[in-house]
Amino acid sequence: MATKQNLPLFTHRLIIFVGAVVATSAVALGLLLTGLLDDSKAHSSHIPDINGMWLEQDVAPYAADSFEIRPEGVFVDGRQINTQYQWDGSTLEYLKGGTLYSYSFLSGRLIRQRPAHYVSSFSRKTIVLRQSH
After folding, report:
1. Exposed site from 19, 25, 74, 98, fewest CB < 10 Å?
2. What is the pLDDT of residues 47-84, one digit of tens each?
3. How many Å apart are CA 85 and CA 48, to the nearest integer?
4. Residues linked to residue 82 through DSSP beta bridges, in sequence order
């Protein structure tokens, strides 16, 4: 009568080790691919660019507020008032002095929420560059 021969202990442990490595690698690869897909979704949901000069609308020109957003920060009357601002694609916030300025982005305009003296809407000012010939 033939007897079933058992695998040597070393071979058995090697098979378990290799299986664990393969399983761990598969999980790590899955997590990596999930992260890459999430990043591509974040990039595909385009956050509008707000860099430029913003001018208050529907007020007398001499009374209109304005500010400029640049990668370096927030500027008012050509002077930098803050090096940081928060922009998530729908809300812009920055500090001017000790006052929080907050704007909602709607249809290409910034609507000032704070400080809220009255409803004020800002449009990006178009700058026309003239070429010298």
Report:
1. 98
2. 899 999 999 999 999 999 999 999 999 999 999 999 99
3. 15
4. 74
Nearest to 125 by CA among 64, 79, 72, 45: 64
Distance CA 64, CA 77 (A): 12
Following DSSP, what letter does each residue of 74-107 receive, concatenated? EEETTEEEES--EE-SSEEEEEETTEEEEEEEET
- Whole-angstrom distance, CA of residue 115 vs CA of residue 103: 9
Residues β-bridged to residue 73: 70
Tokens of 63: 């009374």
User: Which residues, in sequence order, are CB contacts of 76 under 8 Å at separation 6+?
Assistant: 66, 67, 68, 96
3-state secondary structure 10-46: HHHHHHHHHHHHHHHHHHHHHHHHHHHHHHHHHHHCC
Q: Could you give the CA distance from residue 94 to residue 114 in angstroms, rounded to a whole number?
A: 10
Digit-coded pLDDT (tens) for 90-126: 999 999 999 999 999 999 999 999 998 888 999 998 6
Residue type, 3: T
